[in-house]
Design a protein that fits this description.
The complex is a heterodimer. Chain A is an alpha/beta fold. In chain A, 36% of the residues lie in helices and 25% in strands. Chain A contains 9 helices and 10 strands. In chain A, strands 6-7-8-3-9-10 form a 6-stranded mixed β-sheet, with helices on both faces. Chain A is globular and about 50 Å long. Chain B is mostly helical. In chain B, helix 2 crosses helix 12 and helix 8 crosses helix 10. The chains are: A alpha/beta, B mainly alpha.
Chain lengths: 244, 317
């Protein structure tokens, strides 16, 4: 069963059509990769699916329920979590407080006792390898650490569905390997993941299915090995091949 | 400083603030210190709102609503003690109102909206003559009466308003402390730092913003209500003046934005220097400390005075 579905999603910013009737379905417990060149509409699609943008047309369904135009905090309460490509932590708050926000205000699984919330926050930070950074301010973290904090913040609401926006971008090869391992662990935990990634290698490793977006429409989808070899994808990324 | 040292210093400070009315301080100085304490209250409540990311240029609106509300209630025969509490409630409502109306505004736009809000109330007070007394305002507001269940020295003359202003400051600082150490502070900081992110983590920003406005408005209005009972009159141009909007902002940023005690300390320091040192000797320059404080903060001390005493985190903005 599709956990998340977008039906005929369109988004216009003035005269610019960022999405033109996108149909998308993400099956439960799957990892679906979303790729496409810059400006294809990937982040716009994520903004709609996480409730930050209202689509000009179309519907979003989550867990068999119509959730179009639902506020972000309601979607989060239903189990939708997301990360941002460029980390957006609570910059002047401590790393611990950054994950405590979701743990404290999420719609489900709330704790009455502050001590329980703190313990979960510490566990979560340990999961992403930031335990020793708990008292630091978020704006003191390195890029790699910020990416890990992004993931911890997204997980702090205990989502069942995760939108991951370029978790691996800007990381060292070692950091990328770590990201691949994270994907594996998230999948083991039963999460459903919709992920924007640019690295074909990572996608080939982790994704069950790939969707390619170009100029606001889906131009290819299928199993990774099918999609990554398709001429349509090569064309979207590299342009028309006029060579010999 | 060790723990005993800090406790000792705390006791000395407590004695210094509790004793003046009991030791025959001149009423005028009692009045000045009371006003300084009220500014400390307004600056701390301004800081509470700023902690939630909402920068106000219009705290005169809340101060004035409390002043007019309390004055009207007192003149209608209510005990001034109750009238001041009622004024606080009116200020909280008025603040929640502008919080709701400006829900989509941020930064400079919000600041302008709050500035305009205070000006609107000034206009209302000028023109709604039957209620507000128009430009002449209301006179004959009674001073705080003595309380029979307390030793007379605590509420006689200006002692009552002195201790009440001290109590307001202590309570608003305690509320700020409680906010810092509870989920309230967590939500305020999240809304301030990254509103969209907060909304994705289950925080509905609007109710928290309105709560911050209401709390801030409540304490500012309590201060306004007591102030009009100290001076005995209330006029639109006095109580809704930009003076009461800008000074709390200057005091809070000079003392240290988002810090517990900085704004109150700066309020006491700046106001007393201005009134006790400059006003008697160089009256034309008595507002100079505020201007200098603002310049110092902008150019040299982004963290305010509190920034001098705390470790500067690496890379912190």
């Amino acid at each position: 069963m599709a956990l998340l579905e977008g039906r005929g999603l369109s988004m216009a910013f003035g005269g610019l059509l960022a999405l033109r009737g996108v149909d998308i379905a993400v099956e439960e417990h799957q990892v679906v990769g979303l790729l496409g060149p810059n400006g294809a509409g990937k982040t716009t699609l994520f903004n709609i699916l996480s409730g930050l943008l209202r689509p000009t047309a179309g519907e979003v369904w989550f867990g068999g329920r119509r959730v179009t135009n639902l506020a972000p905090w309601r979607l989060s309460g239903l189990g939708v979590g997301r990360t941002f490509q460029i980390a957006r932590p609570f910059a002047r708050s401590t790393v611990l407080d950054n994950v405590l926000v979701g743990i404290t205000f999420r719609g489900r699984h709330r704790y009455g006792r502050a001590l329980d919330r703190r313990h979960e926050a510490e566990r979560l930070l340990a999961t992403v390898g930031l335990a020793d950074k708990a008292p630091a301010r978020a704006n003191e973290l390195s890029l790699g650490e910020r990416k890990r904090l992004e993931l911890a913040m997204a997980l702090s609401t205990r989502p069942t569905f995760l939108l991951l926006d370029e978790l691996a971008s800007g990381l060292s090869p070692k950091g990328r390997e770590e990201v691949v391992r994270f994907y594996g662990r998230l999948k083991e935990r039963g999460l459903t993941i919709f992920a924007i990634e640019h690295s074909f290698r990572i996608l080939a490793h982790v994704a069950d299915r790939l969707v390619v977006l170009d100029q606001g429409t889906i131009v290819a989808e299928g199993r990774p090995e099918q999609v990554l070899g398709s001429p349509r994808v090569v064309q979207a990324y590299l342009g028309e091949d006029d060579g010999p | 400083m060790g723990r005993p040292g800090r406790i000792g210093l705390g006791l000395v400070a407590a004695a210094l603030v509790v004793l003046p009315p009991l030791t025959g301080f001149h009423p005028y100085y009692l009045y000045l210190v009371s006003t300084a304490l009220l500014f400390g209250t307004v600056a701390t409540s301004w800081n509470l709102l700023a902690y939630a990311g909402q920068i106000s240029f219009g705290h005169a609106a809340f101060f004035g609503l409390g002043g007019y509300g309390a004055a009207l209630a007192s003149l209608a025969g209510l005990s001034p003690w109750l009238a001041i509490a009622l004024g606080g409630g009116i200020g909280a409502l008025g603040a929640a109102g502008i919080g709701l109306a400006s829900a989509r505004l941020r930064g400079a736009y919000l600041a302008l909206a709050t500035l305009a809000y205070a000006e609107i109330w000034r206009g209302v007070a000028h023109n709604w003559t039957t209620v507000s007394g128009g430009g002449e305002g209301l006179i004959g507001i009674p001073p705080l009466p003595t309380l029979g269940w307390l030793p007379l020295d605590f509420t006689r003359g200006r002692a009552g308003s002195y201790y009440l202003s001290l109590a307001f400051l202590v309570v608003v600082v305690a509320v700020f402390w409680g906010m810092l150490h509870s989920r309230l502070g967590l939500a305020f900081a999240a809304v301030r730092e990254e509103e969209e992110r907060a909304s994705l983590l289950g925080v509905h920003p609007l109710p928290w913003k309105i709560l911050a406005f209401a709390l801030s408005g409540f304490f500012s209005a309590l201060a306004g209500g007591l102030y009009v009972h100290m001076v005995g009159v209330v006029e639109p141009d006095l109580i809704f003046s930009r003076y009461f909007s800008i000074l709390p902002l200057v005091m809070a940023t000079f003392g240290g934005l988002h810090t517990l005690l900085g704004p109150a300390m700066a309020a006491l320091g700046l106001y007393l220097v201005s009134e006790l040192l400059l006003h008697p000797y160089v009256p034309a320059f008595h507002q100079l400390p505020y201007a200098l404080a603002l310049i110092v903060v902008v150019l040299y001390l982004p963290g305010g005075l509190s920034g001098l005493f705390t470790r500067k985190p690496r890379g912190a903005a």
